[in-house]
């Protein structure tokens, strides 16, 4: 190799960069595409489809599609959404579906940042699936806790169902008669019959615990859960100031229930 004159490409007897065959260049591009801890990057659906046509895709390969702003994984025949896709809102979710719905399959997950709820794709729509505890925005009916009384009502999605917990502690001057907790979200009437027992509850005072039943009244009857005494031999009695106990200071009601949302 000459040692004088202008800088030269370090190949024997060459002063210019050699031409790279097109097939070798394509191989280099594909190799680069499939690097990065096993994650590839493609611009859009056309480029994603090309990886299959070119024989580059393999089962389990994870790719980030820039246009969809989502990770997808090759299942052996097609790319489908991988991991949980985050959206700012339900509106953003709908807009994304219109362009990239083909990346979804039953079980795909997305997270709505505005409400902090994870949704699951059921094949035709997103359905709320999971969340941390959420604040209850309703108003409990026919229940006055009195001075010093406290209330905690919270709810969450868990595996597609709604779990609701309620705890009421009476102060002085409290009253209650047939108290009811309006549902945080509507129930599916086809899977939740009227008065179906969906949870359990307790009334406690001075170390004595009384059983309660939390029963559902369907949407046509107010979409509420009622705290009912299950000690009656003829059925269920509304919880009042004397059934099963008077609401003296220190008495508390507790209930937990689960149901299928609409």
Describe this structure in words.
By secondary structure, the protein is mostly beta strands. The chain has a domain at 134-259: Immunoglobulin-like (Sandwich), CATH 2.60.40. The protein is 12% helix and 39% strand. The chain has 3 helices and 18 strands. It has helices at 22-33, 45-53, 90-100, and strands at residues 39-42, 62-65, 70-74, 79-81, 84-87, 109-112, 117-121, 126-131, 134-135, 141-144, 150-158, 161-169, 175-182, 197-205, 208-217, 224-229, 237-238, 252-259. The strands form 3 sheets. Strands 9, 10, 11, 12, 13, 14, 15, 16, 17 and 18 form a 10-stranded antiparallel β-sheet that branches. A hairpin with a 4-residue loop joins strand 7 (117-121) and strand 8. The longest helix has 12 residues, at 22-33. The radius of gyration is 31 Å and the shape is rod-shaped. The protein starts with 21 loop residues before the first helix and ends with a strand. The model is unreliable at 5-15, 218-222 and 229-237 (pLDDT under 50).
């Amino acid at each position: 190799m000459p040692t004088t004159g202008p800088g030269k490409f370090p190949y024997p007897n060459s002063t210019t960069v050699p031409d790279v065959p097109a097939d070798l260049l394509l191989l280099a591009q594909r190799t680069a595409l499939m690097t990065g801890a096993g994650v590839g990057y493609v611009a859009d659906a056309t480029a994603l489809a090309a990886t299959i046509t070119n024989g580059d895709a393999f089962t389990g390969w994870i790719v980030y599609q820039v246009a969809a702003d989502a990770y997808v994984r090759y299942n052996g025949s097609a790319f489908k959404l991988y991991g949980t896709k985050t959206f700012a809102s339900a509106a953003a979710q709908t807009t994304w579906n219109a362009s990239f719905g083909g990346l979804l399959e039953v079980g795909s997950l997305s997270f709505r940042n505005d409400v902090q709820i994870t949704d699951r794709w059921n094949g035709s729509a997103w359905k709320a699936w999971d969340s941390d505890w959420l604040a209850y925005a309703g108003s409990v009916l026919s229940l006055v806790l009195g001075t010093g009384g406290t209330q905690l009502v919270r709810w969450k999605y868990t595996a597609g169902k709604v779990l609701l917990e309620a705890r009421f502690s009476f102060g002085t001057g409290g009253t209650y008669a047939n108290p009811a907790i309006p549902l945080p979200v509507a129930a599916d009437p086809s899977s939740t019959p009227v008065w179906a027992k969906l949870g359990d509850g307790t009334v406690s005072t001075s170390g004595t615990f009384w059983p309660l039943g939390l029963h559902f009244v369907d949407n046509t009857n107010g979409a509420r859960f009622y705290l009912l005494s299950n000690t009656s031999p003829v059925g269920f009695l509304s919880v009042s100031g004397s059934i099963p106990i008077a609401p003296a200071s220190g008495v508390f009601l507790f209930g937990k229930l689960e149901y299928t949302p609409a």
